[in-house]
Amino acid sequence: MPQTIYVSPRSVGAHDTRPPAVVTTDLARLFAGSPALAGVSLNVAAGRTIALLGPNGAGKTTLMRIVATAIRPSYGTAMVDGMDLARHADLVRERVAYLSHATGLYDDLTARENLAFAATLLATPDRGARVERALGDIGLLDRAGDRVRDFSAGMRKRLALGRILLGSASLVLLDEPLAALDDDGMGLVEQLLAAWHDAGVTVLIASHATERLEPFLDGRIVLERGVVAETSGEGVSSIPPSLAAPPRPAVAAR
Amino acid sequence: MTGLRREASLALAIARKDALAELRGRSAAVSTLFFAAVVLLLFGFALGPDTQRLADAAPGLLWLALVFAGVLAVDRLHLLETDDGALEQLALYPITRRAIYAGKAIGGFVVMLVLGVVVLGAVGILFAVDVAAALLPLLVTVVLGAVGIAAVGTFYAGVTVRLRAREVMLPLLMLPVLAPLLLGAVKATSAALAGDPFGELGAWLQLLVAFDVIMVVAGAATYGYLLED
Amino acid sequence: MKTRILGIVALVAVAAMVLIALFVVPADLNQGDAQRIMYPHVASAWLAYLSFGVTALAGIGWLWKRDIRFDAVALAAAEIGVVFTAFAIWGGMMWGDPVWGVMWQWEDPRLTTTALLLALYVGYLLLRRLTDDPERRATRAAIVGIVAAVDIPIVHFSVEWWRGLHQTATIGSPDRVLNPAAPMVFVGTLIGMVGAFTLAWAYLIIRRYQLARLDVERDEAARIERLMSARTAEVAR
């Protein structure tokens, strides 16, 4: 059996003493005039593992990218761990980790070099040892010296997950984590979910279908056409988007 | 580690990463150098064969070649970040935008410095100018020019990285802004090669320094906005 | 209504100043009638610079307040500015031809800087045109505008040094007109022309801004409408 995966989240403590991991209010985002997110008002409690479900184009990726601070909302506000995204994006980045469709890896660098670079930027303590540990945890130690250019999609995904292990996120956002993974890879994701759950890390997983992840989920959010269709389970709630007042413009900030 | 020291080490880490990736990418780094050489050759064909005319024009030709090659060089550095969404990932790390700009600009500076030294030598040979006699002031000019081209180029490469018609827009935006640098560098080079008969070398170098400082500050202050969508 | 009054006043002022420049003010002793074009040329050049300054400041406003109306101001200033820039260059060439014997003189800092200004404007406007998303366009335009605006004084000084070190004074430049020893008639005409043109510029910018703002508000209304209909559709289900 592989050793326990090493995660080091930033904030620990009993669930009810921590602010909600994610709170959005009438969050909306348009692309070229068309709303990808129309109005999402969500509350995700800390330490929970929540699935974000919905068909293509429902807005799952857009929601994640806004919370990850990769893009700004067009309207509405969002808070992570009680911090406003618009005003404290830099602080939010310290506590959020995001696995997107694109892996953000450098093709001409080796797996080890990619992780070492990430560790430098993440200010991971004891860098060398942590990189080796992460490589071991994701099962890529034997390929650590190979260039990422030669990796399969599944291996890249593992490496991207390894990068998350180097940080100390309290909120992990996974966009279609199981895509392109083989059975071993999916097993790794399950191990990670268990480790994060034990460490009190909040996990939000966007997916088409999550049968395999069912046992790990606390709650579910279903998005459809840019709004929340329903929520179920524990640790997540939502209210319908505001209809009366016009949406508030996004707050000015860096 | 204090904030500024961490930013500096982050910038260096980014520059080192770029250097590693660029050196591993097959022969791409060297191609910019060959481009500059080809440009010099074409200048020779266009303005030659009168050696005196070429020698007189040499400072201008040197810097034109460097500026054109510079457009390609900074473009390459940003293209490194198109590997599978790397630029977006880079922007998500808990690092300041200034550090990202500085990292890219340092990489650009190193490339321009290498280009500058090599092209300087090539110009000396091809256009019969005595580079060795004025080596120190010429190298200072090359260093100052490299800083300016890197600072401005990195900024505009960031602006155009996902823009339509990028290959045209990058030079179109970058080159007019570089006009004072071109002017100053060419004048400084001429003065240096002639032994500075009018004592104007200092003034032109000061212009370059002022340009560099202003552009680095402006670039560092505004580059961050490009990374927020 | 106020804008219309401004427009009429501007029109009258410009017409008056043009007549004065053509018929009332005496011709320059050295250059003759060709010198008369200096008045609108200088006035246009001044407004070309002012417009770019407005564009840059409006860009800062957008980055700071994120109010898209700032971007509308930037657009208006850039479009009007490019017109004045082109006119200034044309005027400079028309003036230069009889006076210098050539249409272009590299050591004239105003002409060279204005030409570069035209290149900066064109780049700016093209950049805007090539970006679809309004917020991204505003941000990109703002930072490009700021960096370009910072560059302009450097260009001006560097060209002045270029000229100064070669010790050829530009013949018949308005510097001669603006010095304290110059006859009041020339100075007064120049100031009057600049004032009249500035009024016209202000009128044009306001009108262009109003158009741009209408566009922006219409787009915004369309966006909000689609947003609201998406919300109601789901809630109703």
Let me know the largest β-sheet of chain C. none
Order of helices and strands of chain B: HHHHHHHHH
Shape-level CATH architecture of chain C? Up-down Bundle
Please indicate the count of domains of chain B.
1
Number of DSSP-assigned strands of chain B: 0
Please give the radius of gyration of chain B in angstroms.
Answer: 18 Å
Our count of helices of chain C gives: 7
Domain count of chain C, please report it.
1
Order of helices and strands of chain C: HHHHHHH
The global form of chain C is elongated
- Provide the residue-averaged pLDDT of chain B: 90
* Helix share bin of chain B: over 70%
Instruction: List the uncertain runs of chain B.
Output: none
Assembly annotation:
heterotrimer
Q: Overall pLDDT of chain C, averaged?
A: 84
Which CATH class of chain C applies here?
Mainly Alpha
Describe this structure in words.
The complex is a heterotrimer of chains A (254), B (229) and C (237). By secondary structure, chain A is of the alpha/beta class. Chain A has helices at residues 60-67, 89-95, 111-122, 127-137, 153-166, 183-199; strands at 22-31, 34-44, 49-53, 75-80, 83-84, 96-99, 171-175, 202-207, 219-224, 227-233, 236-239. In chain A, the strands form two sheets. In chain A, strands 6-7-8-3-9-10 form a six-stranded mixed β-sheet, with helices on both faces. A five-stranded antiparallel β-sheet of chain A has the order 5-4-1-2-11, covered by helices on one side. By secondary structure, chain B is mainly α. Chain B starts with a helix and ends with a helix. The mean pLDDT of chain B is 90. Chain C is 82% helix and 0% strand. Chain C contains seven helices and no strands. In chain C, helix 2 runs parallel beside helix 7 and helix 3 runs antiparallel to helix 7. Chains in contact: A-B, A-C, B-C.
How do the helices and strands line up, and which of them pair or pack?
The complex is a heterotrimer of chains A (254), B (229) and C (237).
Chain A: E1 22-31, E2 34-44, E3 49-53, H1 60-67, E4 75-80, E5 83-84, H2 89-95, E6 96-99, H3 111-122, H4 127-137, H5 153-166, E7 171-175, H6 183-199, E8 202-207, E9 219-224, E10 227-233, E11 236-239
Parallel strand pairs in A: 3-8, 3-9, 6-7, 7-8
Antiparallel strand pairs in A: 1-2, 1-4, 2-11, 4-5, 9-10
Helix pairs in contact in A: 3-4, 3-5, 4-5
Chain B: H1 3-24, H2 28-47, H3 51-79, H4 86-92, H5 97-126, H6 135-160, H7 166-177, H8 179-193, H9 201-227
Chain C: H1 2-24, H2 38-65, H3 68-100, H4 109-129, H5 134-164, H6 174-178, H7 184-236
